[in-house]
Amino acid sequence: MTVLLSFIILVLLFVVLVLVAKASEISAELKGKFDYIQQSRLNGYLLIGFLVLMFAGSAFAYKELAPVMLPKSASLHGIATDRLFNITTIITVAVFCVTQAALFYFAYRYNESFGHKAYFYPHNNTLEVVWTVIPAVVLTFLIAFGMYEWFKIFNVEARDKNALVVEVTAKQFNWIIRYPGQDNKFGKRVIDKEHISPTNELGIDWTDKGSHDDFMADKLYLVKDRPVLVKIGALDVLHSFYLPHFRVKMDAVPGIPTEFYFVPTMTTEEMRQYLSTQPWWQTINPETGEPRWKTFKYELACAELCGKSHYGMQKEVVVVTQREYDEWLKNQTPVYSTMTPKEAPASPQPAEPVKTAMLTR
Fold first, then answer.
1. I need a labelling partner for 173 at 20 to 30 A (CA). Which of 91, 184, 238, 359 fits?
2. What is the Cα 229 distance to its own chain's centre?
3. pLDDT above 60: residue 252
4. What are the extents of the domains in the chain?
5. Is 67 helix (H, G, I), strand (E, B) or coil?
6. Are residues 181 and 244 in contact, defined by beta-carbon separation less than 8 angstroms?
7. Apex CA 114: angle with CA 113 and CA 115, to 5°?
8. In what order do the strands lie in the sheet with 239-243?
9. How many whole angstroms separate alpha carbon 10 and alpha carbon 13?
10. Which DSSP state fits 283?
11. What is the average pLDDT across 294-320?
12. HSE-up of residue 44 (Cα within 13 Å, Cβ side)
């Protein structure tokens, strides 16, 4: 509330200053004492001052906020994604600084004055070519680099057939995480009124033996250096499957299955050890009284505004070694084994073979 009131006060103060300046200007015009040359020179100085403040403020914001941005990527494809992002940022920031500096300097240098006439410079073919070709070449490079990495990320043929497969379904306002069990195969789902119920939101067909070892998890467990294929869906409205530390984002669309394939490269513990070397993560978290790196957790979040409790769609993501994952897998209880006979109908028995008589002569 204090921050909001302070912001409102600053806005009102700015409005008052503008109105006072405008009233002073009108008063001077009515008295015939308004000096246009002096005002033009003053505006030039103010624009240079604003330029300096803008660059200084941007540098200060970067210094303060850079340490709390996402740490280095914890996935294989995220390294290339970060590289492309950094290259794009460097180019755009450099262009922004040059163009803004020129814009404000020209407004200062060529302000209104007596005895000077503006030079009319209608056209220059060389300049037209330069400021058309250079941006076109740079943008072509960025687009080509981006498309190359895009096709690598979504290259279906290059996927490991032994990848860990996880099904993640979004709903207001939660994530349903299903693992296929020891056989690494999911049981069938049937989307109709007969199969979907409050106790079976996914419409799992319990008569399919493939579903008998499937289990639900409260956390998303992944294995370091083992490819994972996440099958994504939604039960109600549009959501977005977002793993910021792995540079993964894919929409969860009702009725249209989507998926994302990636390779985690750092366990949760390894990421904590890395963050323990970073200055900001060494500071004490006032909520826990411990260094921030000690309580770090990978996060699954929803990146699509999906309703009033959108902010609460979070799940912890845990990256472990293969040995630790196998131990965790052994301790999971299949959903089918916890259900009553009424909730989990038995698999249908195979039909008796039809006996036919042999025709003999």
1. 184
2. 18
3. yes
4. 35-114+148-157, 159-338
5. helix
6. no
7. 120
8. 220-223, 314-320, 298-302, 239-243, 248-252
9. 5
10. S
11. 94
12. 16
**CA dihedral of 136, 139, 141, 142, whole degrees rounded to 10:** 180
Q: How many CB atoms lie within 10 A of CB 175?
A: 21
Residue range 159-338 forms a domain whose CATH class is mainly beta
Q: Which helix (H) or strand (E) holds 20?
A: helix 2-30
CB–CB of 332/217 below 8 Å?
yes
Q: Name the H helices within 66-170.
A: 76-109, 125-153
For residues 206 and 344, what is the distance between their CA atoms, to the nearest angstrom?
6
CB count in 10 Å sphere of residue 10: 10
What are 297's two structure tokens?
Answer: 């957790």
Q: Which amino acid is at 256?
A: I
With CA atoms as reference, report the closest residue to 308 among 173, 177, 210, 146. 173
CA torsion, points 77, 79, 81, 82, in degrees to nearest 10? 160
CA 169 to CA 360: how far, in whole Å? 60
* Residue in the structure block whose two tokens are 């403040």: 53
Phi then psi dihedrals of residue 228, to 5 deg: -130, 135
pLDDT per residue over 197-241, tens digit each? 888 889 888 888 888 989 999 999 999 999 999 999 999 999 999
Separation CA 142–CA 206 (nearest Å): 49
Contact at 8 Å (CB) between 146 and 77?
no
Ordered DSSP codes for 203-269? -B-TTSGGGTT-EEESSEEEETTS-EEEEEEESSS-EEEEEGGGTEEEEEBBTB-EEEEE-B-S-HH
State the amino acid at position 281 in one-letter form: W
DSSP 74: S
pTM, full prediction: 0.79
How many CB atoms are located within 10 Å of the residue 237 CB? 16
Q: Which helix (H) or strand (E) holds 27?
A: helix 2-30
Residue range 159-175: mean pLDDT, rounded: 93
Query: Sign of dihedral through CA atoms 83, 89, 95, 101?
Result: negative
Q: What are phi and psi of 229, to 5 degrees?
A: -110, 115
